[in-house]
Amino acid sequence: MRQVLVLESEGHLKARGVEALAELRGYGATSDAHHLTEPNPTGQSAANAIMLALDAASVDVSEVDYLNAHGTSTPLNDWQETKAIKLAMGEEAYRVPISSSKSMTGHLLGAGGALEAALCVRAIQDDVIPPTINLVDPDPECDLDYTPLNARRSSISVTMSNSFGFGGHNSVLVITDASWAD
């Protein structure tokens, strides 16, 4: 399977006579410069990126069907991301299936966000929550539904993709089915 991510305007799509596979509905970006390599321990800056993305997309947290986590499988980063998701999504954080594609690919650094966005589109197309492979003994602090070991079928219309980088650079995309909210 080959994938490429192409972003184009609705007008350009119509001029070419093609249908969109998905829509980049909104994004949020923050930067806290907390530390060169450690995430902010409060999780607030990453949570703000999530909330900004949802707001820009006009999506309520209750509408999110899947979240592709930054998920580096490192204790400090995973704890802080879990904290950020809970801060941003409240009790809804426990409902949303989450997985980390890095469990399958490793950390692709600059290419990670693009691949993870493409995987969100694929999740929408296939109605499949990708698994977090090798997640056998999760940390008790990471108590959300991280879709361990096996993929799961589920109707997916609204996805989010978290990308949290060194230096406190945080970005979140909200990607929806192209016909969502029409």
Describe this structure in words.
With 182 residues, the chain is an alpha/beta fold. The chain has one domain: Thiolase/Chalcone synthase (Peroxisomal Thiolase, Chain A, domain 1, 3-Layer(aba) Sandwich), CATH 3.40.47. It has five helices and seven strands, in the order αβαβαβααββββ. It has helices at residues 10-16, 44-57, 75-89, 102-105, 112-126, and strands spanning 22-31, 66-68, 98-99, 128-129, 152-153, 158-165, 169-177. α3 (75-89) links the parallel β2 and β3 (98-99). The longest helix has 15 residues, at 75-89. The model has no long low-confidence stretch (mean pLDDT 91).
Which secondary-structure class do the elements indicate? alpha/beta
Mean pLDDT: 91
Strand order in the largest sheet: 1-7-6-2-3
> Beta-strand level of the residues, as a percent range?
15-25%
User: What is the makeup of the main sheet?
Assistant: 5 strands, mixed
- The total domain count is 1
What is the CATH homologous superfamily assignment? Thiolase/Chalcone synthase
Question: What is the class in the CATH system?
Answer: Alpha Beta
List segments where confidence is low: pLDDT < 50 over at least 5 consecutive residues. none
Give the number of DSSP strands: 7
